[in-house]
Amino acid sequence: MTPSTEQIVSKDIEDQAVQATGFEDHHGPAKGFSRWLYTTNHKDIGSMYLWFSLAMFMTGGCMALLVRLELFQPGLQFLEPEFFNQMTTMHGLIMVFGAVMPAFVGLANWMIPMMIGAPDMALPRLNNWSFWILPFAFSMMLMTLFMDGGGPNFGWTFYAPLSTTFAPPSVTFFIFAVHMMGISSIMGAINVIVTILNMRAPDMKMMKLPLFVWTWLITAFLLILVMPVLAGVVTMMLMDIHFGTSFFSAAGGGDPVLFQHIFWFFGHPEVYIMILPAFGIISEIIPTFSRKKLFGYSSMVYATSSIAFLSFIVWAHHMFTVGMPLAGELFFMFATMLIAVPTGVKVFNWVATMFRGSMTFETPMLFAIAFVVLFSIGGFSGLMLAIAPADYQYHDTYFVVAHFHYVLVPGSIFSIMAGVYYWLPKWTGNYYDEQMGKLHFWLSFIGINITFFPMHFVGLAGMPRRIPDYALQFADFNAISSVGAFIFGFSQLLFIYNVVCCIRKRNQASKQVWEGANGLEWTLPSPAPYHTFTTPPKVD
Amino acid sequence: MIKPVDNHKLAAKLLLGVTLMFGFGFALVPLYDVFCRVTGINGKVDLTPGAYLAGAISSRSIKIQFIAVNNQTMPWKFKPKEPSMNVKLGQTYQTAYLAANMTENDMVAQAVPSVSPSAAAAYLQKVDCFCFNRQPLAAGEQKEMGLAFNILPGMPEYIKTITLSYTLFDITAADGKELASAQQ
Amino acid sequence: MNLNFSAIKIISSIISKLIVIVFFAAPAAHADWQLNMREGVTEISRAVYGLHMIIFWVCVVIAIIVFGVMFWSVVYHRKSRGAKAQNFHESIYVEIAWTVIPIFILVGMAIPATTTLKKMYDSTESDIDIQVTGYQWKWRYQYLNEGIDFFSSLATPKEQIYNQAEKTSNYLLEVDNPLVIPLGKKIRFLITANDVIHSWWVPDFAVKKDAIPGFINESWAIAEVPGIYRGQCAELCGKDHGFMPIVVEVKSQVDYDAWVIEQQQAQIAKAKSAEKRWTLDDLMHSGKQIYAKNCAACHQSSGEGIAGAFPALKGSPIVQGDPNEHINIVLNGKPGTAMQAFAEQLSAAELAAVITYERNAWGDSVGDIISPRQIVKFQQ
Question: In the predicted model, is pLDDT for residue B175 greater than 60?
């Protein structure tokens, strides 16, 4: 078969286009798969991050549904305990490293250059690389499920010696996967910092930066400070497993508790890495739909910085039962309680922004309001967990599960969804279906509350976390939680459908998109052209 | 306008920060040991001999309990010679643990000490201890493993009983590897 | 590659089981809808409960105020009601106020919390010292002065867990040998572990302490009400983490003393049982029970193990070969694996029974009897 002349001609034009983009900035994207493989465009990379994150969110979500299915009734019905442990572990790892973090990086890629008036990210090739590491890292991690002895089954916190001496052989692949994710996050963070510090439009002073950019700048510094520590701790594990060192084995003079200290030195800032950008998104959305400037801009910046600083000195509150001396216990208790102050300031500021505004309740605003309420509930249970003597009763129970799901699901995940609905018209040039968006919101809102609120009760009543089967007194609340989980899980299909329709159907969005929106991104046409701000905009 | 060179400079500085933090992760290991010694986290105690304490014997006495724990696959019989002693602060005492290797193989063990309450760890000084060395026992061999210790008089008033535990780990495999590599 | 968990198998089993549950299962009517923390039976647990309630109500009050203002705005300051946005976006006084007031509330919370924590740490002058050791997946209790030493493992039968039998009221919270302590005495728990990290938790005493291999932790309780108190392991410790409950029986001093004597006599009787003459049937009968309790978690009741994690006993060369090899691995464990040393955990008679059972169950039928005397001889 000979290709028609037409095809050959169009192929030539494509080639020229690919070559041209290397030198000239005024052409559109290349066609086909190579566009995505070789792209250095922040919008393309942002989209890839977001699609990847969505895929991981659905994967991790399916694992959560398997877990909830097993916990629907007492007794073992569907999963054997060792597979159950793999599911809880993988669910945690995938949601933290595969869903939430890449989603925020995706939003950063799309929005930061457009918000600060930069033509692209500062280090575009590094940007391409940091994305393309991720699919390999997660393929490797998911592959462990099919290996002899199964995948990681030691919880996403992988405490030694369960994750070293007692781990399945696949742990080595898990360690390499964590290394790859770590490298990807670190490169992403470097890129964000360089972009924000070096690439701002000439009049864009630091204290004029949109809050999403500010929170991401602080998050990126946290990433740079703690991801290498995570890399260090898994390297030590690797050495303990394969090279005969004993960092975490008491027999050779090591200490399993040391693992927990190093892990949580990474782990506590990590949880703020997953919430600070969310604060940023919410601080963009609430003023827009209240048609009023954000209350207390500078105090928001200072509060975010203090939270970031405090996150480095509270790690051992995850370890109150490990047997620390009294003085240590008291120090970590007080420091942890202190975090409530800047966090409170943020919530008060959001409420004060809404107060005496002129509010409308489009989907992003609904998610943002739900964020404020439900994240605060997670904050309150966090305050309760900070009280060390009470923590002896809460620690490692479903109360903790309820707590961190309240800050991560209606916290981080809701903020990501709010952000997607908010900026989707700018990305695609089309409005999404508002009715469907609202339906998605209400189903998600009802679903997650049915899922996670009863977990407070079973936790207080004494149900430990990470168990595949439970005593009969916990049965009813667990059945309710499982029903809620399925409502929440399946309502996400609406979200995907809505996003896909929004990309395909024409429902032309204006430049401004939202009546009350402010900021450089809204001065660009919708959809935002492939290359934006090739000449820096004027900032007033 | 920002030149790419500036971006690369900043990126290099940040990369340096990343490298330093990777090193810091490892530096936490010795830092933690120092921290433990000062605060007595975990009841972790020094694995180096303490000095004999001359004079300054206090009239205050406390009870010290001895506990023996076998880790995972350690099949030896292992127990303290005496379950507890009443000791005067500042005075050095001798006692022992009894170990018997009932298996058909020669084995090597490492004992790991731990003190509770952890606040007492800093005041318990081991003059001589079988935990300072690896303990080989031939198949069927029995041994009395000696321990000499004293408790510093500075011990907080509220502590009336302290517990010293030894966990016995089987390190035959690790020890064998090391021997083999040393011989090469 | 191990395809035991292949997606198709899981999905098909899920669908078939779902059908069963939806159409045939009776609703679980056992739950007691407990919403709150237990007050417990010690001074400390009541103090903890008090703290929990104070901080809870503080949170409720703050939530009502903050969300009240927010929802008031949501209702009254909406565009559809003609609300016009105001211009203010800063107020240094308001911001100082809502920074300083929370600090005072927190200090108010920190004071009682510190007092309680200090009490929890004061474990001196105990009446009874008990060493608690976590094993995969059972607990061992050693009374340091009374010379009592026993293991405590899950008593709920497998049939209940796998839904082949009606679940009884203390499902998963029942053990064979509970920890027994006297009323009103200060009990000090010295907590450690044999393999991985566990966590010993009795909610009614507000005692939760991690059991860490190589290190010792302590905690204490004075129980004020006789009764049976149940808890569970609280730190993920591998496959059967959910199946190692803790049961503590608080008895009056008289009953406790009687129990101590009974235990001490039982230990003497156990040592004597090695001298008794055992038949194959006797050994197989008790061997089956001991196997179910101590071995089946890993090697499975079918003896087939779990591929890639725990080896099969059925058809294993050790089980079919030299009895001494077999005795050696059961008594002394296998270094570097999850195979524990059972020499201390089981009596000579129990060891003989379980080894005999392993050698004759599952159609392997080597046909030999391992007598308790052989075990005793092996141990000398």
Answer: yes
Asked if C98 lies within 8 A of A475 by C-beta distance, the reply is no
- Model confidence pLDDT, tens digit, residues C150-166: 999 999 988 899 998 89
Return the DSSP state at A408: I
Residues B11 and B73 in one domain: no
Q: Tell me: the pLDDT tens digits for C281-299?
A: 878 888 888 888 888 888 8
- Give the tens place of pLDDT for each residue, C47-89: 999 999 999 999 999 999 999 999 999 999 999 998 888 888 8
Q: Which domain holds residue A500?
A: 275-508
Q: Which of A190, A227, A250 sits opposite B169 (nearest CB)?
A: A250
Does B59 lie in the same domain as B12?
A: no
Q: Is there a single domain that holds both residue B110 and residue B150?
A: yes
Q: At CA A362, angle to CA A357 and CA A365, rounded to 5?
A: 60
Task: With beta carbons less than 8 A apart as the criterion, state whether C189 and C221 touch.
Answer: yes
With beta carbons less than 8 A apart as the criterion, state whether C316 and C360 touch: no
Residues of A tagged active-site: 91, 120, 156, 184-185, 268, 270, 272, 283, 317-318, 343, 346, 465
H or E segment and range at residue A492: helix A475-504
Residue numbers in C near A482 (CB within 8 A): none
* CATH code of B49's domain: 2.60.370.10
Count of domains forming chain B: 2
Structural domain for B8, as ranges: 1-39
| Phi, psi (deg, nearest 5) at residue C211 | -100, 115
B23 to chain A: closest CA residue: A232
Cβ of A464 under 8 Å from any chain C Cβ? yes
- On whether residue B67 sits in a domain, the answer given is yes
**Residue to substitute from A88, A358, A375, A457, interface C, most C β-carbons within 10 A:** A358
Instruction: State the residue for tokens 């009323």.
Output: C183
Do residues B63 and B22 share a domain? Answer: no
Minimal Cβ distance to C343: which of B75, B84, B159: B75
Evaluate if residue A23 carries a pLDDT over 70.
no
Write down the mean pLDDT value for chain A: 91
Distance CA A147, CA A169 (A): 8
Distance CA A118, CA A98 (A): 27
Q: Is residue B75 domain-shared with residue B131, that is, in the same domain? A: yes
Average pLDDT, chain C: 85
Search chain B and give the residue with CA nearest C327: B103
Least confident stretch, A141-145, A472-476, B104-108, C224-228: B104-108
* pLDDT per position as a tens digit, A480-531: 999 999 999 999 999 999 999 999 988 889 999 999 999 999 999 989 999 9
Three-class SS of residue A136? helix
The neighbouring-strand residues paired with C13 are none
Contacts of B172 in chain C (CB under 8 A): 335
Task: Provide the domain count of chain A.
Answer: 1
A426-461: per-residue pLDDT in tens?
999 999 999 999 999 999 999 999 999 999 999 999
- Cα(B131)–Cα(B108) distance, rounded to whole angstroms? 12
Task: Work out the pLDDT band at A12, boundaries 50, 70, 90.
Answer: very low
Burial label, A97 (beta-carbon count in 10 A; 0-12, 13-18, 19+): buried
Beta-carbon pairs below 8 A across chains B and C: 96
In this predicted structure, what is the pLDDT of residue A272? Answer: 95
With tokens 């008895």, the residue in question is C251
**Are B114 and C192 an interchain contact pair (Cβ–Cβ within 8 Å)?**
yes
pLDDT by residue (tens digit) across C352-362? 888 888 888 87
Say if residues C273 and C349 touch (Cβ distance below 8 Å). Answer: yes
What one-character-per-residue DSSP string does C311-378 give?
Answer: ---TT-HHHHS-HHHHHHHHHH--TTSS----TTTS-HHHHHHHHHHHHHSTTT-------HHHHHHH
Interface list for A 105-124 with C (CB within 8 A) = none
Residues B5 and B71 grouped into a single domain: no
Does B97 share its domain with B158? yes
